[in-house]
Amino acid sequence: MRYWLMKSEPEAFSIDDLKKQKVVGWDGVRNYQARNYMRAMKKGDRALFYYSNTKPTGIIGMMEIAREAYPDPTQFNHKSDHYDPDSPVEAPRWSQVDVKFLKAFSKILPLDEIKGLPALQNMVLLKRGRLSVQPVTTQEWKTILKQFS
């Protein structure tokens, strides 16, 4: 099993939205590296749900990869904010995965606290902060979950 961190703005899609819907497609990713990470995900992998562009930013929940990468339909939808007129139907440029709600944490683990944990100093989150989908090592995963126990 591998571990990931996936970001969303709570106004766009929150942990409560995921909890209500149970399983959803994680669409709209328009960064090639983030897309490639999603294409590497396997069913059963776990992911941290991270709130971005809010105060405070941080980890708020946990989810599971329920379906491996497939073409993101929003790239072909003219009415979508994520429409990409240059993405060919026969070789789609963008992918998404389905995620399943596992847990909403009782509190957010803010980025400032993450930065203060020595075991997390090499986290992709701290090196490439803007990346919306990123890997998490097993040790980082364990360290983060300890903050909620």
Describe this protein's structure:
It is a single chain. The protein starts with a strand and ends with a helix. By secondary structure, it is an alpha+beta fold. 30% of the residues are buried. A 6-stranded mixed β-sheet has the order 2-5-4-3-1-6. Strand 3 and strand 4 form a beta hairpin. The mean pLDDT is 96. It contains 5 helices and 6 strands. The radius of gyration is 15 Å and the shape is globular. The protein is 23% helix and 34% strand.
- How would you classify the helix and strand content by structural class? alpha+beta
Choose one word for the global shape: globular
Spatial order of strands in the largest sheet: 2-5-4-3-1-6
Number of helices: 5
Report the CATH superfamily.
ph1033 like domains
CATH architecture: Roll
Q: What ranges have pLDDT less than 50 throughout 5 or more consecutive residues?
A: none
Strand content: 25-35%
**Number of structural domains:** 1
Q: What is the mean pLDDT?
A: 96
Q: Nearest-angstrom radius of gyration?
A: 15 Å
* Tally of strands: 6
N-C termini distance:
21 Å
Order of helices and strands: EHEHEEEHHEH
Highest CATH level, the class: Alpha Beta
And the CATH topology? ph1033 like fold
List keywords for this structure.
single chain; alpha+beta; 5 helices
Task: Provide a compact summary of the structure.
This protein is α+β, with helices and mostly antiparallel strands and 149 residues long. It contains five helices and six strands, in the order βαβαβββααβα. The longest helix is centred in the first third of the chain and has 9 residues, at 32-40.
